[in-house]
Amino acid sequence: MTNNTVHQIDPNTGEYTWETPAPGTPFGITSVGDELRVLCGETEEDYRIIRRLVPSEGFDTNFKLPCPQDTGSQLSFNGQQLHVSQWYNKVVVAIDHNGNVQKSYESPHGIAGQVIVDNRIYLITTEAEETNDYFLTRIDVDSDTATDIAKIPFPARSLAFDGQHFWSNHRAVDQIVCFKHPD
Predict the structure, then answer these.
(1) pLDDT tens-digit readout, 42-79
(2) Which domains does the chain possess?
(3) Do 79 and 119 meet the contact criterion of CB atoms below 8 Å apart?
(4) Global pTM exceeds 0.90
């Protein structure tokens, strides 16, 4: 269920501590310093746009960065560039502050989640989203090599890393799932 609202959750209690309406359907989110970037589908044609969100304040109505090719679903940030995943194109693109593609990384499967850890892009991937055949795929950004490193036994969406564990979402059963970093 999509309710077009971004919620802040207390990690100790799981309770909502703040929420704000999104300017469209929020798909991907990543932190950029003390701010967030949220990838939203905002038009009838479902064009994808990246928005700036300041926690406890709301969305910046002036910040509007169109996604390359008007498509994208997940976001990550490596400290310098945003990375936008394009599920059906099976690619992650690194973009500059104007949304121009600086580099592309190919994935062996469609992309349902992403996070950057230690100069590697970790992805939740699948060939068929209606199955339970999902993978944790790692892209080494120096060699552009993509490798499936673990199987995920449920249709996962999104990916985060807390320094020790990966976190994903099993949306079909409304659960947040934690698993160890396999490397």
Answers:
(1) 978 789 999 999 999 999 999 999 999 999 999 999 99
(2) 5-180 (2.120.10.80)
(3) no
(4) yes
Q: Give tens-digit pLDDT for 110-159.
A: 999 999 999 999 999 999 988 899 999 999 999 999 999 999 999 999 99
- Using H for helix, E for strand and C for coil, what is the string for the chain? CCCCEEEEECCCCCCEEEEEECCCEEEEEEEECCEEEEEEECCCCCCEEEEEEECCCEECCCCCEECHHHCCCEEEECCCCEEEEECCCCEEEEECCCCCEEEEEECCCEEEEEEEECCEEEEEEECCCCCCCEEEEEEECCCCEEEEEEEECCCCEEEEECCCEEEEEEHHHCEEEEEECCC
User: How far apart are alpha carbons 99 and 65 in whole angstroms?
Assistant: 6
